[in-house]
Amino acid sequence: MIDQVYSFVFKALLTEEALDKGGRISRLQMSPALDKDVADTLCLHLLDPDKVSRARRMTTAFTAITAFENSVRELIERKLLEIIGVDWWTKSVPEKIRKKAESRRDEESKIRWHSARGDSLLNYTEFGDLDSIIRNNWQHFEAHFRSIEWVCHIIDTLGKSRNVIMHSGDLQNDDFERIGVVIRDWVKQVGI
After folding, report:
1. CA–CA separation, 123 and 69 (whole Å)
2. Which of 33, 36, 164, 189 could form a cystine bridge with 169, CB 3.0-4.6 A?
3. How far apart are CA 28 and CA 102, in angstroms?
4. Exposed (0-12), middle (13-18) or buried (19+): which is 191, by Cβ within 10 Å?
């Protein structure tokens, strides 16, 4: 039995190595074919090349911020579901945030031809609402974070860069470095 397990694991490792040597694209790499297909579908070739180049530079920062934001949303939902239960939304999210998210979901559901933000109402909250939800439930998150002020600082810092990108602005190298530092600090502290 041990020989069979060893053989299976060894073959899997050899397969992984062969895929890597053969040019396998990791999940962190963009597929050139997919990127070209999407670019063609979006008619990027019709737009000003300098503007497209600057926008592509921003997509890397946007990718990092979006992945971070979705990780925070997942952490909040997972933790509150685990501790409070299925009615965590009504019991632990401030009413003002709940009403705004529910209203946004209801409005967007009328536009059936467009993709939805997601299944969870948490996806309809604003990025800046996440620290308010954590603050409102601090006793459940305290063990994960240094302080609520630290959480607010991280979300506020990334929110500033997020807003620049979302409103078609350009970040500078200092902004990229700041994004990297706060995401790295968060991951080291929280472990997501």
Report:
1. 10
2. 164
3. 33
4. exposed
Examine residue 147 and state whether it is found in any structural domain, yes or no. yes
**Is 53 a member of any domain?**
yes
User: Domain span at residue 64?
Assistant: 48-94+126-190
Over residues 91-147, the pLDDT tens digits come to 999 999 999 999 999 999 999 999 888 889 999 999 999 999 999 999 999 999 989
Amino acid (1-letter code) at residue 190: V
Q: What is the largest distance, in Å, between two alpha-carbon atoms of the chain?
A: 62
DSSP letter, residue 170? -
Instruction: Please check whether residue 36 lies inside any domain of the structure.
Output: no
Q: Where are the alpha helices (DSSP H) in the chain?
A: 2-21, 32-41, 49-83, 88-92, 95-109, 129-136, 138-141, 148-166, 173-190
Task: Find how far residue 160's CA is from the centre of its chain.
Answer: 15
Q: Which two tokens stand for residue 93?
A: 């999210």
